[in-house]
Each structure stands twice: as C-alpha cells, then as structure tokens.
Amino acid sequence: MSNQIRPLAICIFRDGNRILVGEGYDPVKRETFYRPLGGGIEFGERAEEALRREVREEIGAEIESPVYLLTLENIFTFNGEMGHEIVMVFDARFTDAALYAQKTIAGTETDGTQNFPFKALWKNLDEFGANAPLYPDGLLDALQ
Fold it and tell me: Bridge partners of 39?
C-alpha cells in the first residue's frame, strides 16, 4: 500500500436481509473479513462509472439503478500496512436476477499485474460482528 488516500466506490446488493460481500483474509491479523464489491475510482472517472466497471471486472455482472447512499472514511491496517480510503457507498440491483439465487459467486480481483481469485457470498446482516467483520468501518452501523 502507498501513503496515498484511495478513493473507492462499493455497492450494497441486497436480497431481503442479506447482502453480497467478498470474503478476504488478512494473514497478519489471521482474520477473515468481508466487504461489498467495488474498487478504486480512476482519475477522471465518476464514482458510478467506477462501480459499474469494478463489478463487471470482479464478477462479470451488470448492474442497474445505482443510488448513492453515503461516504465513509476508512483508516485501517491490512497485511501489516496502513491504508486510508474514502469510500462512496451505493445501492444497486443486478440485471441478472439469477445472481440472487447463487450461494457463492466466483470473483477475481486484480492489482494491475496479477489476478487474485475471491469468493463472494450472501450473508445476513446479523452474521457480521467481531468474528466476521464487515469493512469499511462504520458500514454495518449505517446499514442497520
């Protein structure tokens, strides 16, 4: 990670009390964590455009009706390194309703040089907590 603040756009996909989240793991903290799909906003790109691009790149899906919800500031440590993000949070729907019936969805994250597979899954809001944190910080409170 760099010492730069990173702008992100993430999306809350809801299905009743469930939301779709990517599962991650921090080997230093030995912590499995969850965060909604989305990613970095490129220079000259609007947040909504970044959101559409990131979801397409990560799981090959198209979205509709994105609505801006809130912005969160997230200062964190991952893999022993400090990070700082400004996160624009959206709500949207998938154009393909079949995605709501899948228990897990295979995804791919990239850092520009290599790809990292990940698993996206539907989790009830009450499943998140100290043993299953939802990032960015403050998101769970905002959704409840």
Answer: 9
Q: Are strands 31-35 and 18-26 parallel, antiparallel or unpaired?
A: antiparallel
What does the pLDDT read at residue 39?
94
pTM over 0.85: yes
Q: What percent helix, strand, coil does the chain show, rounded to 5?
A: 20, 55, 30
Largest CA distance in the chain: 40
For 70-79, which contacts have Cβ atoms below 8 Å and span 24 or more sequence positions?
70/142, 72/136, 72/137, 72/138, 72/139, 72/142, 74/135, 74/136, 74/137, 74/138, 76/135, 76/136, 76/137, 77/28, 77/29, 78/1, 78/26, 78/28, 79/26, 79/27, 79/28
**Contact 129/144 with Cβ under 8 angstroms?**
no
Beta partners for 74? 85
**Are the beta carbons of 102 and 51 closer than 8 angstroms?**
no
